[in-house]
Write a structure and sequence with these properties.
heterotrimer; A alpha/beta (about 450); B alpha/beta (about 325); C alpha/beta (about 325); A: alpha/beta; Rossmann fold; five-stranded mixed beta sheet; 14 helices; globular; B: about 325 residues; alpha/beta; eight-stranded mixed beta sheet
Chain lengths: ~450, ~325, ~325
């Protein structure tokens, strides 16, 4: 057969990244091939992994689910596999790769092949570490259609611990992903629905890493409100438009060039600016989500106990389900001590919303930061908070605590001990650079 | 099947202006694979970090790919290439293949796409052996090319699992107790077959027509086709200008990397390399042309014939033994169906 | 003379002598700079910093080298942008870089060429001292290799001054001995050194205008493509013909229409630059090669053509571009 007889003239558009062929991929066929999981709003019982899995299954743009099992994210992959197997004549497929390195490389190839489809996976801890060379590349790639769900688990060995703390995600901040922490099943589900809208935004074009705590969220069931597929699609389609840059299939293009030191820095600058642009876009998506579904959408943090234009004595900054324990005992602690106590549960970790955190914490006299990831210094969050406060004329004292490493229980007693420790700063006493707490005691 | 000359008339997806060394076999391979792939189907390449990658995909002015002088109106002539990390070419190719197939399955993509992966032996046999074997194991419908120059060339010509015994590399230098590389090379052909490939071949553009035909068969393979391309490296093996193709032929004929083709269910052949050592050219001539073997074989300046260096007789005997084993193993593999 | 020539050896004694070289990978630039560094280090009071600009440049590609010498420990780590001495190792390299860029007026230029200092000073618009030496010829004559590092080393050492000839010569030979080069070859290197010393010519000239040889200011990175993803075919602008060995070009000539259309040259050309026309009987007939833009002179077509229609032809590095006639 001579090439001439199969010649397929097609409209193509020049872009800064090569040529894009407009009509090669008919996305409507992909949308039409989606079989909805839910046709109306429902309440189901789900753990964190199931909530995350359902969210990805409901997206029409997710058709390939690559994964490799690792505790505690295994059930994400299993749930997806079961639902895909149950779906007669569906086009969704699960791809079992031989290692996390392969999963990460697969995501790159798939996301580059078609930039309008979303490619999710879930992993944890050392699984994420295995992916590192590629995740650092993805962060810079412009492939905002990759979503890497991190089910937090203590990273590294000596000793090995398979329970949840955010040391894995915090060790990967410089990969360049937009990192958003979640607590509770609803927030997990909602965050995952919104993340690709942020990552694929044309000004952002950065992959996203939504995450939640292994065990404390991944392995606990609670009520989850799921939305009907078609409403999710309507919401996402408002934000996700066909990518202006070509992919491998619809393009005449080269992805993955190398450069010398003459240019590298310029690319890093551009990458950083795209990441920071997510600070503007995220609240817009969150606001639209709230209007659409009547629940809070993406935000920089959850605020608890703040009063309009009033000072608080003590502000707590932390993240994840253990913050909820603080949330529950806060009113009682206020009553007993007569102090005004408020808190921020961080959600957007990277890029860290410095400005917004500063605005909030400027109203506090002291700040207790509770870190839950091993750090060689005062703690990842402590450094972020200290940096956020650094330009204030009289910044609050920052007291740094560690609790819950490796998923250790953070009891009410432990919270009380940490809060009492922070009160020493209110009393003008010197506090050590950091203290680690367990079972109600500082160690 | 297109003829040898007809293929020369095709438009290659590989272009001049790369920074590959003058006479690099990898560029010859890409030129020809590039022409064979001009067959009415959109071609997508994935490539691992290697000489081939850094020398052909560098911003701002070294992207040596593309059919024709400008982006074509004919979609089938468009071309895309993706590079990620060292070992990733087969996995990237697998992902592209799966996405194309998924899109096709719901009617979202009607134009056929062919996917080819390219790695060096560094990327494929060392760090990338996992990726190579597993993509093959999953019977992925892609063509995997491994450009075998027996070294990690891009990083400065260090030892690789494919390095010939006794070759000097920058990490296996020679010394009084060290006659170059002490390892036997990896049996990559056997591994590819065992992992489940549909087609396995070892052939370089020096075997002109055979190379082109084999590439064509590889592209048509319904599962994984694996093409090992012996790629004499002028800078790493240290030979004279203009000898790349000759050396590739000689190396194949004397048994170091014999031409071999094999298809599952059909069996295979060893070509242009007789089983009996007497019927093959000796490896000394092959070695005498490369300064990476000058500690083993040197050309006698008076007669011009290659002579074994004093003290290396035992090593040469072992090398002859390895070459014979190598040839015999391929003959046995050829009989497997 | 508008400005007095820079006194290199007093720079070396007083502050820091900075040098820069431009050449082709494999053309001897790095060797020359390494030999110069070794010479400097024979003086125990001198500190040295020597390095090539790091890139994945392979044989033939343009490269740059730097050398700082001082009586004080060298702390600076930035590129040398105002060298008092600039070496041009391969004339072809000058087509893509201005080897005189940043050299202050009155600086020293050392050029590996057959042309005279005055010809070079006029062509490159140089103000200062210009030294030339036909280093490739010396290399060919004594070392059977058209590589000019020995002569370049001698010329630069001469330009700097302050080192007695014996020290210049013996330092070079000592480093050869350290690499266990056989005595026969060392003797030929010695002859090459002596011949180089005799072959260096120099002069002082003033041909640069004020605006010449200024580095273009950095105007920002511009709009860089996201993730460094680009269009294809960008290598059209990368003139790899400069990789060809200095002094030679490929020539194709078929006055008797002997081409059989075997297509071996087409199939084996790594750059795919053999030009041909379709032919009813022979399928294709070769008409020429795109020599001036992309031919790296790898020699495969020369080796593979059964009719011997390709040859290597001597070629004076042209200062005005001229295509070798097909």
């Amino acid at each position: 057969m001579s090439p001439e007889s199969t010649a397929l003239p097609m409209l193509h558009v020049s872009t800064p990244a090569g040529e894009r062929y407009e009509t090669v991929i008919d996305l409507e066929r992909v949308r039409a091939a989606h079989h909805p999981l839910y046709r109306e709003r429902q309440t189901v019982s789900a753990d964190g992994n199931v909530a995350a899995a359902l969210a990805t299954l409901q997206m029409w743009r997710c058709i390939l689910y690559a994964g490799f099992p690792i505790t505690p994210s295994t059930k994400w992959l299993e749930t997806v596999a079961v639902k895909v197997a149950e779906d007669a004549h569906g086009i969704k497929r699960v791809k079992l790769l031989e290692a996390e390195h392969a999963v990460a490389d697969y995501l790159v190839g798939a996301a580059a092949a078609c930039r309008d489809l979303i490619f999710p996976t879930a992993t944890s801890s050392v699984g994420l570490d295995h992916m590192t060379e590629t995740t650092r590349s993805l962060g810079a790639s412009g492939l905002g259609n990759v979503m890497l769900i991190d089910v937090y688990r203590a990273t590294a060995n000596f000793p090995l611990c398979i329970e949840g703390d955010p040391s894995d995600t915090l060790a990967h901040r410089d990969d360049g992903f937009i990192q958003i922490a979640c607590r509770g099943k609803q927030q997990i589900y909602d965050t995952i629905l919104q993340s690709p809208c942020l990552g694929m935004h044309p000004d952002v074009m950065t992959p996203t890493m939504p995450g939640f705590y292994g065990i404390k969220d991944s392995h606990r069931s609670a009520r989850l409100t799921v939305e009907p597929d078609h409403e999710i699609h309507e919401f996402q389609d408002r934000w996700i438009e066909p990518c202006q840059l070509p992919g491998l299939i619809n393009g005449d293009t080269a992805l993955g060039n190398c450069v010398t030191s003459r240019f590298f820095q310029g690319f890093k600058l551009a990458q950083k600016r795209r990441l920071e642009r997510s600070l503007d876009v995220l609240p817009m998506i969150g606001a639209d989500f709230e209007r659409t579904f009547g629940r809070p959408g993406l935000a920089y943090f959850d605020s608890v106990g703040w009063r309009e234009a009033e000072r608080v004595d003590l502000a707590v900054v932390s993240m994840g389900p253990d913050f909820g324990t603080f949330e529950a005992l806060r009113p009682d602690y206020e009553k007993r001590t007569g102090l005004k106590v408020a808190g921020l549960a961080m959600r957007l970790l990277t890029p860290f919303p410095r400005e917004a955190v500063r605005l909030k914490l400027a109203n506090a006299s002291a700040v207790l930061v509770v870190n839950q990831a091993h750090h060689v210094g005062r703690g990842h969050l402590t450094l972020d908070v200290a940096d956020a406060l650094s330009n204030l004329p009289s910044p609050p004292r920052v007291v740094s605590a560690f609790a819950g490493l490796g998923g250790a229980d953070v009891s009410e007693d432990t919270w009380e001990a940490m809060l009492d420790g922070a009160r020493e700063a209110l009393d003008g006493k010197r506090t050590p650079p950091w203290r680690l707490y367990h079972e109600g005691r500082a160690l | 099947m297109s003829g040898y000359k007809e293929t020369a008339l095709k438009e290659s997806c590989f272009r001049p202006g790369s920074t590959l060394c003058p006479g690099c076999m990898e560029s010859v391979a890409f030129q020809n694979v590039g022409r064979v792939s001009d067959n009415g189907k959109k071609t997508i390449f994935t490539i691992g970090t290697s000489c081939a990658e850094v020398s052909t995909l560098a911003f701002p002015n070294v992207v040596a790919w593309g059919r024709g002088d400008r982006a074509p109106d004919d979609f089938a002539k468009s071309f895309s290439i993706l590079h990620n990390v060292f070992e990733s070419a087969p996995t990237l190719a697998e992902a592209v293949r799966d996405v194309a197939d998924s899109l096709e399955s719901c009617g979202a993509l009607k134009s056929p796409v062919q996917v080819m992966a390219a790695s060096g032996d560094g990327g494929a046999f060392a760090i990338g052996l996992r990726a190579l074997l597993h993509t093959i194991h999953r019977r992925t419908r892609v063509t995997i090319m491994v450009l075998v120059n027996e070294i990690f060339a891009n990083t400065g010509f260090q030892y690789s699992p494919a390095t010939m015994p006794f070759a000097e590399t920058s990490t296996t230098p020679t010394g009084p107790d060290f006659p170059g590389n002490p390892q036997m090379p990896l049996d990559y052909i056997h591994l590819a077959i065992a992992a489940g490939a549909g087609l396995v071949a070892q052939v370089s553009p020096a075997h002109g027509k055979l190379f082109l035909k084999t590439v064509e068969r590889a592209i048509e393979c319904p599962t994984t086709a694996v093409l090992f391309v012996p790629a004499p490296c002028i800078s790493g093996w240290k030979f004279e200008d203009g000898e790349t193709v000759e050396l590739a032929l000689l190396g194949a004929q004397c048994g170091v990397f014999p031409a071999f083709t094999w298809e599952r269910g059909k069996g295979g052949k060893v070509l242009d390399c007789p089983l009996d050592a007497k019927d093959r050219p000796g490896i000394e001539e092959f070695m005498a042309r490369q300064r990476r073997f000058q500690h083993m074989v040197k050309r006698d300046p008076a007669t011009g014939t290659p002579a074994i260096q004093p003290g290396r007789e035992q090593a040469m005997e072992r090398l002859h033994g390895w070459v014979q084993e190598n040839v015999e193993r391929l003959y046995r593999l050829a009989e497997m169906k | 003379m508008r400005s007095t020539p820079l006194d290199l050896s007093s720079l070396l004694q007083g502050s820091t002598l900075e040098m820069r070289g431009d050449g082709k990978a494999g053309g001897g630039l790095v060797l020359a700079f390494q030999s110069l560094a070794a010479l400097m280090m024979t003086d125990p009071g001198l500190h040295v910093q020597e390095w090539p600009f790091f890139s994945s440049a392979r044989r033939g590609a343009g490269i740059r080298s730097f050398l700082r010498v001082s009586r004080n420990p060298v702390a600076a780590s930035c590129e040398v942008t105002r060298p008092a001495l600039s070496l041009l190792m391969d004339e072809a390299a000058a087509r893509s870089v201005d080897f005189a860029e940043g050299v202050p007026h009155g600086g020293t230029f050392v050029i590996n060429t057959r042309r005279t200092p005055e010809q070079c000073a006029r062509h490159f618009r140089l103000t200062g001292r210009v030294l030339t030496v036909a280093g490739d010829d010396v290399g060919t004559r004594f070392l059977k290799h058209a590589i000019g590092n020995v002569s370049a080393y001698v010329a630069v050492a001469t330009a700097i001054g302050g080192f007695p000839w014996e020290q210049v010569r013996d330092s070079f030979l000592a480093s050869l001995r350290k690499r266990r080069i056989p005595e026969g070859l060392i003797a030929r290197n010695r002859e090459a050194l002596e011949a180089s010393a005799a072959a260096v010519t120099s002069g002082e000239f003033d041909f640069a205008a004020d605006a010449d040889h200024r580095a273009a200011p950095f105007e920002g990175y511009g709009a860089l493509p996201v993730g460094a993803q680009t269009a294809l075919r960008l290598s059209q602008k990368n003139r790899t013909a400069d990789y060809a060995r200095s002094g030679f070009r490929l020539r194709f000539a078929d006055p008797k229409d002997a081409c059989t259309g075997c297509a071996h040259c087409v199939t084996n050309c790594p750059e795919g630059i053999i030009r041909f026309r379709p032919d009813a009987e022979r399928v294709l007939v070769v008409t020429g090669v795109d020599v001036s833009t992309f031919c790296k002179l790898c020699g495969e077509c020369i080796a593979v053509c059964p009719e011997k229609l390709f040859v290597e032809a001597p070629y004076q590095e042209a200062w005005t571009e001229e295509e070798v006639p097909a």
